[in-house]
Amino acid sequence: MRGRENRGRWMALFLVALAGAAQVQPLDAQSTKMGSTLRYGSGFFNVPAASTLPHLAITGTYSGFGISVDERVFISQRGIEKGRLSGEWSQWLQDASVAVGLFDRVELGASFQNFADAENGGNMVGAFGRVAVVKPESSGFGLAVGTRFVSGPSFGDGRDHIPPRLGFPDIRFYDQYEGGLVDDMSTSFSPYVMGSFQLAGLDSDALPEHDLTFGLGYGTGMFGGSGSDLGWYGRRYSHGWLAATALHVQLAQGILLNLMGEYDGWDFNTGVQLDVGGIRAGAYVLGIQHVETSTIYRSSRFGVMASLALCPGGGGLLCSPDLMPRPEPIQLPAPPPDTVVIERTTEIPIELSMERTLCLATGENGTVMATPEGAEVIALDALGGVYAADAEWFNNDSEIEHGDYPYEKVGEQISPNCTTITRVGEWLGVPLFAESAAAGADPIPMIYVPVTPGRWQPYELPARVRG
Asked: 411, 410, 417, 412: which is closest to 360 by C-alpha?
């Protein structure tokens, strides 16, 4: 009865958070930096994350791990060990899952576990969901509420079997044992709350760009102590506390290496995942603290996983993993130079000179003097700012990026008035500007790059992004 009441409270909390997320307008799109759990959507291995998939992003994941022990434990109807069968027993366990992100705050999915025939317990299916109450992308701190459900196996013996923590059918594991030896056996429904911190890594030329994620949470059901009274199942547990950490290393643009470790309430797990533009592969070890191999639940287990992350709402079909956005460096204006005079062999008659206004890379208009033909210029104001005329990427007609969108050079250079444009960022040290009326758009349709004082190059979204 107590377990049902607790499940009711957790479900009510999850539904309230889900309803609140549905009322929130999507904010800045989240990245797919977090890897895939083995069977429950994004996260670590067994521990969930406080973030969710981006809106309409979809992931499909396959995982498998091997179990190999020297002997198997047989139990009585009360759950007590009564004997062991010697001889190596090994099995390869497989799982698959699919997950989708909604509103940049919700993640829902389904799992398909073990693929066993009816004689061995049949297939186990599940569902999971998570709501990001506080998005970690906004401040570095995240908070999420979620739940997992896994159906119990059926061996046709008249007992209500429940899923063990390793996610495969085990005929020895059921909700009630004779004599009431084991209390609160409930693992099908596993609600949790998860908090996390995302930190930008060290800024060093000797290290690749990297981020750190730390997670701490609490859960019941499969995360809690159900089965801790069974010596063959596992006596050491955390009473529901979860912890995890990940180091995200950017090897190249769109290529992310995730080194992860976690404590899922029972076992310490570690491993690595490589994400190449949404195509993921990884290897892991579950239960690294175990040294014996005599029981299934107290032995180390090696596995592999593969995942595909699709982001149809982005710039391409596959998701591109990104680190936390770095703050743009503050570009201090150059100190005013002395008045620059371009000398010529023939003196310019003062009455033939004229005044001109140029839009500078500082975002301010500057006044200069020129001959009527405009050939000879005498600077009266400081011509400060950083320009792209000598930049390799500009002269090679390379694309630039702003707000995670690509832009390509288009048209002839123009001479805008600085009162009509606003700075919106920078690209490799050169400031980027946009029409003031369009500066708040996402994406901005047209970007302007200062080439020389008074000459600006337009860049626009390529056709593949404009759709």
From this structure: 417
